[in-house]
Amino acid sequence: MTKYSMGKKKTSAFRINVGTEDEMPLESFRWSIKRAIAGWVAVILCAGIPLFLYSWRRSILLRFTHAHCHPDVAHKVLLKDKYDREYVEEVHRGDRPLKDGTNYIYFCNKRTKYVWKTDLQRFVALDGLQVESSSDFHDMSMGLSCMDVDYQKELYGQNTLFIQMQPIYKLVLHEISHPFYIYQIFIVLVWLTELYYQFSVCILVLSIISVTVSVYQTRKQTRAIKETVHSESLVTVIRDGVESKLSSKELVPGDVIVVPEQEHIMECDAVLISGDCIANESMLTGESSPVSKVPVSCAENYVATVEKKNILFSGTVMLHSRSADNQKVKAVVYRTGFSTLKGELVRSILYPKPVNFKLYTDLLKSTVVFLFIGIPAMIYTGVVFYRLGAFTQDIVITVIDIATFVVPPLLPAVLTSINAAAQKRLKKEGVYCLNASCINLCGALDVVCFDKTGTLTDDSLDLSGVIPSENGVLQSPVPHPQDLPVCPMVVALATCHSLHLVNHRMVGYPLDVKAFESISWSLVEPKGKDIEGFERIPPRVVKPPNSGEGGVNIAILRQFPFESQMQRSSVVINAAGSKLFQVFVKGAPEVIRDMCHPETVPANFRETLDGYARKGLRILAVASNTLPEDTTWDKAQYMLTRVELEQDLKFEGFLVLQNKLKAGTTGTIAVLENAAIKTVMATGDNLLTAISVACDCGMIRESDAVIEVQAELLNYRDLKVNYCYTKLPGLSEKLVLGHGGAIEDVSIPLLSDYTYHLAMDGKTFALIREHDKDLLRRIVLKGKVFARMLPHTKLQLVEALQEIGFQVGMCGDGANDCGALKAAHAGVSLSVAEASVASPFTAQKGNIQCVPDIIREGRATLAATFGSFRYMVCYCFVLLMGVLYLFWDGQQPSEGAYVFIDIVVSFLPPMLFGTMEAFDKITKRPPAKSISNFLSILSVLSFILIQTAFHVLAHFFSVRQPWNEPFVFDKTRIHTSAPTYMCTAVLSINCMPHVIAAVVFLPGPPYTKPMITNKLYMAVVVFEFLAVSYVILYPAPFIRDYINFREAPQFQFHVVIYMLSLLNFSISYLWEVYFIQHFLYHKIQPALRGMRGPIHVYEKIERELSLDTKWPPMGKADSEPASPDYDPDIALFRDSIIRRQPETPTMPLSRKFPGADVHEMNIYERPSVTFKTFRQSERRRHNES
Question: Which is catalytic among the residues 255, 446, 451, 459?
Fold first, then answer.
């Protein structure tokens, strides 16, 4: 937390969580009796309005009753996050001081405790146990003293994820403080004053139902989370060197716990200090593969965010634990309660990122606009009735009543019904939506990011073969590793893994299991008995198939399981009867290469790696090292650090793995691309492998080019960026450039016009993001494949796409994708693990075929929302126009007329808009994202004008009848006017527009199915049309009297009014459906959109790139500019010919490439070729012509 000067107004200002996503400014306040008295007097004088404002802005009442002060004497603090949400927290003071002798002052925010540090003059978040090195954990092996336990318990509290159920009355008050509900309370009170109880009761009942459902769902979700996260069990704790069994709620950071051998659930985050464990962390990551946990080293610096291999996380299942030396498996409690990783997940669910969607902002803004529009109508009403001599009380009531016309009273209930219907349809498709408001967001998605492994491709990898290396030279590939004699590659397959035995069954990563089974070795975990040939009892031993015939057993002393941050795993082994210890390392080829002696790395390392990667195969590299002869068992198993163990490595070869696409991946990507929804891959795999998968699934077309972006930092400040082609337009990325001698002739087309995509790894993305924001926006816009991405860089990619104006969706399998799933506008988890509750959507099918379904439902919901909003706005203002027309001479519609229009005619249609099913296809053009767009405004205004014109026609038609009787105003009967022919004509005309609106504003193709497919809605519309026709033509006497209509002397009068209504129907339908929705929407608006220029940030960047003749800057960023006579197409062919001269002296117009039947394990040298941009050659030819 940092401190800033606050000038004269405030003495100081502070921040907490500086440098993190949850950084917030802090203001401290102390209760003031003078301010409190003045504040409450103001509340009373303002009729309690400040209390409603307080529900929206927490700081209002705080500033009324408190004064600024220094934090160490504060009673309350005010926090404001980056989403402009305010938190008022009470400051507490403990009875006992801290260990440094200072007062114990703290507050809690979002389930995190912040403690005031006097020496630092700031509040500090209380996280886990504070240690300087990993040796501190081993020093705690005897446990805490009773005095330390009491202090830690006072500081950290109970080890529980307790979620308090908010009282129902608080939830109700929170719901009804929303502006829409406040408005509904207002209109109900006004209508009850006028004794218009029928519609008042309807609105009241719907509001009660809506609030009840909302409160019920909130409590249900809270209860479900509470029951899910609550866990308590007995644990064995060592305190003062004595073991005892306690409730897990009593654990405090620093406690030493004994990890039982049998399966159990961890109740805290703990650092393993002895023995090893195998854990199922699917609750946190969605990864079903068990994970090995090893004890923390005594000599290593400890970083909690990196050393996850040593942490037993709260909520994960410990499948098995063991110790080879017959000692107990121990762990030191590191974090408890909401500080644990599980607690962070729960906090992210309880305090999610707010949904920022223009639709909801527009709805609130439109409410304010409508209220302002109602002011002239209220003035008009007051002037008219004052001119007519009405009583003041009646004028006031009538003027206030006008305010109830301008905002749709059913809006909250309608939006709830639309979202609920879409949520129900998604559930039928096997997609569970935890936040119904996110469905609308899916309707406007521009980009969808996908993880690769487990999302686009299958979870499991198959071992295709191995490629040994001897003396720095790669040998022939071996498809079946069991055919190899015992060699370093076989030893690596047998030992470099994190496999365990649980109930005599081998568990671990599926890849490790398949690799181990491919060589037919066996795994043994000795327990309490010696294994011949070893100095001590090793944790586990692997035996070759011929172990009884002279084969040598190998002990695995130490394991460093695979971690995504380090991109490798390693083991320390010892062969039976040998005094030497070896280290084997397996991981990403680029990482392993940099750790090996250069002379052991084959010269064709890169070409071979790229060759297999282009085939979509995944490659792992293997390296080894023999430790010095004086290395002891203790040093190898405990004392040497990982850095010391992984020095001076020798490259041993490649493991070639195959990952197949999931069923439905290609078809889903095609659907999205055809709908102009940009698809992006963000994976932790190799770049060329990712590009190959992108081509296979259709993200990158055969006619597209792929440009690799590589960045490096010079002198720690200068960013150097290189661009080179990894795939040519019109050619497969799997073709071997520069080599012939194959089956087919493939002609290279003239490279003049093409679509290109950028591809890069996570390192390049991070460097550009940090050092060149302008370039970041360009590569994010054109980027298609992002490889070697860590969890936090995936999140940064989603945020970068959002910053340039895209509406972003993210689809992942839950492993390493949680951050990106939370950051996206719409996150879709393919994992049903508990971690998926952090994502708005969870698919049971486990493949990406659900994504188009979610987008289709989102578009249908969005279109239904806009349609219902236009319907309700027109309903309000058309009725208002009719009423104002009658007000001119003092007439008013009767209560029965209001009941007929409000309930019989206009109540059901908007409530049923959400029942329209989504259209079968996704078109390129999404629905409008804003209700304030030009066509929506034109549609509403033109509809109201057309209806007003027909009201005028009906008025003039009625007053020109020879038997018409003028209305005589009676101020004593202002609310119960006598029936007149003019009122009958105007209100008859006013009934039909609500039926018309139910037809013309109903969404249809290409977002929802046609209206005729919805039988329920069709029945309602037909019923309302018949009811309106009946009332206009010849209603029963009691109905005529109820709605205060007057029967004309001639039946032809009613027929003419009915014909005007039908003419109104025809004109309104033709205008809205054919002119606005078809002609303007499909013809004029696209043309105008092309002329208007870019609006969104990404459109502006696209325009800049199209005008930049030097983009993309092919070759090195600091290379010399090309000669004016340079033609990139000719240079491309010349370059290719020069590179092929050693093999073939001449080159024909077509080039030969390997056929599809060549075995994937064959190796080809693949020289890298850098080309200039093809687009420049097209411009040159145009200029020459």
Answer: 451
Residue type (1 letter), 806: F
Q: Which two tokens stand for residue 454?
A: 């487990």
Check if the beta carbon of residue 710 is closer than 8 Å to that of residue 766.
no
Residues 1018 and 900: their CA atoms lie apart, in Å, by 20
Rounded-to-integer distance, Cα 999 and Cα 608, Å: 64
Using DSSP, state whether 101 is helix, strand or coil: coil
> Residue 771: left (phi > 0), alpha (psi -120 to 50), or beta?
alpha
Nearest Cα neighbor of 814 from 841, 787, 782, 775 is 841
Tokens of 906: 């206009």
Same fold, 447-457+662-729+753-844 and 462-488+529-534+545-658: no
**CATH superfamily ID and name for 462-488+529-534+545-658:** Calcium-transporting ATPase, cytoplasmic domain N (3.40.1110.10)
What are the extents of the domains in the chain? 15-126, 168-229, 234-350, 410-428+855-1076, 447-457+662-729+753-844, 462-488+529-534+545-658
Per-residue pLDDT of 897-921, as tens digits, reads 988 998 899 989 999 999 999 999 9
CA distance 93 to 143: 28
838 φ/ψ sector (left φ>0, alpha ψ -120 to 50, else beta): alpha
Among candidate residues 705, 698, 704, the one with its CA nearest the CA of residue 726? 705
Judge whether 451 counts as a catalytic residue: yes
Host H or E run for residue 573? strand 568-575
By the 10 Å C-beta count (0-12 exposed, 13-18 middle, 19+ buried), 220 is classed as exposed
Q: What integer is the mean pLDDT of 910-937?
A: 88
Q: For Cα atoms 399, 404, 405, give the angle at the middle one, nearest 5 degrees.
A: 95
User: Span 234-350: which CATH code?
Assistant: 2.70.150.10
Q: Residues near 918 by Cβ (< 8 Å), separated by ≥ 6?
A: 425, 853, 856, 857, 859, 860, 1007, 1008, 1009
Residues with Cβ within 8 Å of 145's Cβ and at least 6 positions away in sequence, in order, are 239, 240
CB 197 within 8 A of CB 191: yes
| Separation of CA 706 from chain center | 27
Buried b (16+ CB within 10 A) or exposed e, 30-62: eebeebeeebeeebeeeeeebeebbeeebbbbb
Q: Which residues contact 1041 (CB under 8 A, 6 or more apart)?
A: 896
Q: Write out the DSSP string of 743-789.
A: SEEEEPPP-SS-EEEEEEEHHHHHHHHHH-HHHHHHHHHHEEEEES-
Minimal CA–CA distance to 1043: which of 907, 904, 895?
A: 895
Closest CA to 875 of 410, 188, 368: 410
Half-sphere exposure for 170 (CA within 13 Å, toward CB): 6
Topology of domain 410-428+855-1076, CATH: Calcium-transporting ATPase, transmembrane domain (1.20.1110)
Instruction: Enumerate residues 6+ apart whose C-beta is below 8 A from 10.
Output: 27, 68
pLDDT at residue 1061 greater than cutoff 90: yes
CA quadruple 378, 383, 385, 389: dihedral positive or negative? positive
- Condensed to tens digits (0 to 9), the pLDDT of residues 149-202 reads 999 999 999 999 888 888 888 888 888 877 778 888 888 888 888 777 888 888
The per-residue b/e assignment along 1031-1051, b for 16 or more CB within 10 angstroms, e otherwise, is bbeebeeeebebbbbeebeee
pLDDT at 1016 over 50: yes
Run of H or E including 495: helix 488-495
Compute the distance between CA of residue 475 and CA of residue 464 in angstroms, rounded to an integer. Answer: 16
User: 447-457+662-729+753-844 has which fold?
Assistant: Rossmann fold (3.40.50)
Distance CA 268, CA 129 (A): 12
d(CA 183, CA 207): 11
In three-state secondary structure terms, 1119 is coil
